[in-house]
Amino acid sequence: MIDLHVHSTCSDGSETPEEVVSLAAATGCSAVALTDHDGLAGIAEARAKAESLGIGFVPGCEVSCAFSPGTMHLLGYFVEPGEGPMQNELTHMREERATRNERLVNKLQDLGLPVSLGQVQSAAGSSVVGRPHFAAVLVANGAATTIQDAFDRLLAKGAPGYVPKARIDFASFITTARASGAVAVLAHPLSLGLDPAGLEGVLTELAEGGLAGLECYYSRYSPEERAGLAEMARRHDLVATGGSDYHGRFKPDIFVGVGTGDLDVPDSALGELLARRPDTAA
Ligand code: AMP
Ligand code: ZN
Ligand code: FE
Ligand code: FE
């Protein structure tokens, strides 16, 4: 069992990079990828922990791409902290987030909700600030009952407090990832909000653009959905990957490795992904 989709305190997870790696090892994962949003700040710490525990480690990240009607998240794997095309793009995305966070605070305040930028920043600590931190503040201030309630009524796409963030187009992300020796995988494909025919069409475009894999084994998907996605991956010559999307207490029903209990991503997915790395890898 492996887990190729995990968040830490470096973005909007509640556990440190060391802690998520320890949890992965304790759950029985033979390898784990750290995939914080828009950044690589946790990679060194997570890797050191994985080495000390004797499990495999994959440096990664997750970004939001421009897409409608739903949301498109791409995972980048084998991307190292430091300089490079992908690394520079991530820095740019973090800068854009700062602007978005100010707009989000203003919008929520206009709706009469109790939230300030200072509160959100202290909820996030040194992390990349994301909507889950806004949700946590809304819960702490009594404006929502749970994180999920804050999203459903206020923060989710289509809800009154939604503010989009800057997004990269998927073709650029895939190209930039490959230029940095990394590979791109489509995260939680059902979030695209497409019917099966629509999904097939987008996968064709993504695969032509150099996509390496499809996240078929995902915590929130049923066995039938996972099997259907794995079949789609096979048809498009994409690696069938998977992960929990663990966020600690920000997604309290999801655990590292096992998701809500029945996740079991095959170890073979990692070897297949490694084989898709571009030759330009440094
Ligand atoms: P951001 O990058 O600031 O837009 O926040 C994105 C994060 O918010 C995702 O990684 C999820 O953890 C969380 N999120 C987004 N949409 C929802 C939703 N509808 N319900 C619960 N959590 C969500
Ligand atoms: Zn997240
Ligand atoms: Fe995501
Ligand atoms: Fe995620």
Attribute tags:
282 residues; alpha/beta; 7-stranded mixed sheet; 10 helices; 7 strands; binds adenosine monophosphate; binds zinc ion; binds fe (iii) ion
Task: Set down the secondary structure blueprint.
Layout: E1 2-6, H1 17-27, E2 31-37, H2 43-53, E3 56-65, E4 72-77, H3 85-110, H4 117-124, H5 131-140, H6 147-155, H7 170-179, E5 183-186, H8 196-208, E6 213-218, H9 223-235, E7 239-243, H10 268-274
Parallel strand pairs: 1-2, 2-3, 5-6, 6-7
Antiparallel strand pairs: 3-4, 4-5
Helix pairs in contact: 1-2, 4-5, 5-6
The structure holds adenosine monophosphate (AMP), zinc ion and fe (iii) ion (2 copies).
One fe (iii) ion is lined by residues 5, 7, 62, 245.
What sequence of helices (H) and strands (E) makes up the elements? EHEHEEHHHHHEHEHEH
Quickly count the helices.
Answer: 10
Anisotropy-based shape = globular
Instruction: Give the cofactors and ligands.
Output: adenosine monophosphate, zinc ion, fe (iii) ion
Q: Strand share of the residues?
A: 15-25%
By secondary-structure content and strand pairing, the structural class works out as: alpha/beta
Largest sheet: 7 strands, mixed
**Helical fraction:** 40-55%
Give the low-confidence spans.
Answer: none
Terminal residue distance = 28 Å
Please report the total strand number as a whole number.
7
- What Rg, in angstroms, do the CA atoms define? 18 Å
In order across it, which strands form the biggest sheet? Answer: 1-2-3-4-5-6-7
Mean pLDDT over all positions? 95
